[in-house]
């Protein structure tokens, strides 16, 4: 059942504690317009605050694509930052200021997926180019179908990716030289290669199977203490970007408050009595 209506996004709660966000522009291969990426933080900030939600599954509508990337037709409108008019670039500093503000906003919109307090499981299928990779590396887990084709496409349109991929992809996969190769060449790579380097957690034959696995994992996560789950996501992301000593201090200070939750005695009692614990909304 849909819980919120957004243009080109469908948000539903298919089962208790689990939200499903579907990019819904299949007739255009779920390619992103400016309106769509501006909608991302509205979707994920709302779900981050929603006490009914503990885990989020993100997928793309249709059979052909998770997302074909940026909608180049809409981006090429005269006067946009991708297709400036001569008068727009007459003063280089002023245009640079405008573009920098645009880039910061674009980055912040995509980062809303990572910033979301709830774990996000991204299910990729078919065509997954450009912004599809930017989005997926903001998620916590990635599952794909055997026909998924990935590409960090930006150099093919004359720019360096500045939204998410070049900052996050090296921290997701195990090979920095592999990251440089795929980003410099924009070559397409498939599901098996994505699994080998650690970009995806698992591969399924079709979208239905991948969605089923995402739902299974989401249900397991949703059964845990939401205090513990959200703190764990927070700690892992924080420690990825800080040194060990700083990370240890941060987690200790955070947990000094979080450990006071009622979820700890509930979880411990459930473990002793071998029953399924029930945790309150957070």
UniProtKB/TrEMBL annotation:
MF terms in GO: delta(3,5)-delta(2,4)-dienoyl-CoA isomerase activity
Keyword check for Acetylation: yes
Main subcellular localisation: other
Pfam family for this entry, one: ECH_1
Biological processes annotated in GO: fatty acid metabolic process
InterPro entries, sorted: ClpP/crotonase-like_dom_sf, Ech1-like, Enoyl-CoA_hydra/iso, Enoyl-CoA_hydra_C
Domain of life of the native organism: Eukaryota
UniProt GO cellular component terms: mitochondrion; peroxisome
Pathways involved: Lipid metabolism; fatty acid beta-oxidation
Gene3D superfamilies assigned to the protein according to its UniProt record, in alphabetical order: 2-enoyl-CoA Hydratase, Chain A, domain 1, Lyase 2-enoyl-coa Hydratase, Chain A, domain 2
Family assignment from sequence similarity: Belongs to the enoyl-CoA hydratase/isomerase family.
Protein name: Uncharacterized protein
Originating species: Knufia peltigerae
């Amino acid at each position: 059942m849909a819980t919120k209506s957004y243009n080109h996004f469908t948000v539903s709660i298919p089962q208790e504690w689990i939200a499903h966000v579907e990019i819904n522009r299949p007739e255009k291969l779920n390619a992103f317009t400016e309106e769509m990426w501006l909608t991302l933080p509205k979707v994920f900030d709302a779900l981050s605050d929603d006490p009914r939600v503990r885990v989020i599954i993100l997928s793309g509508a249709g059979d052909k694509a998770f997302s074909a990337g940026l909608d180049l037709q809409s981006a090429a409108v005269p006067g946009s930052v991708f297709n400036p008019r001569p008068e727009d670039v007459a003063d280089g500093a002023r245009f640079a200021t405008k573009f920098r503000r645009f880039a910061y906003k674009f980055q912040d919109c995509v980062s809303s997926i990572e910033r979301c307090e709830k774990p996000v499981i991204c299910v990729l299928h078919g065509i997954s180019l450009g912004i599809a990779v930017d989005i997926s590396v903001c998620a916590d887990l990635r599952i794909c179908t055997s026909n998924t084709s990935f590409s960090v496409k930006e150099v093919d349109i004359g720019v360096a990716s500045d939204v998410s991929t070049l900052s996050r992809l090296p921290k997701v996969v195990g090979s920095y030289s592999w990251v440089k190769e795929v980003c410099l060449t924009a070559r397409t790579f498939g599901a098996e290669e994505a699994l080998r380097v650690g970009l995806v957690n698992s591969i399924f034959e079709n979208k239905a199977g991948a969605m089923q696995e995402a739902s299974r994992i989401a249900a397991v996560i949703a059964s845990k203490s939401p205090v513990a789950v959200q703190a764990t996501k927070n700690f892992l992301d924080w420690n990825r970007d800080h040194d060990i000593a700083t990370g240890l201090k941060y987690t200790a200070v955070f947990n000094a408050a979080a450990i006071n939750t009622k979820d700890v005695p509930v979880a411990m009692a459930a473990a002793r009595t071998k029953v399924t614990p029930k945790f309150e909304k957070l």
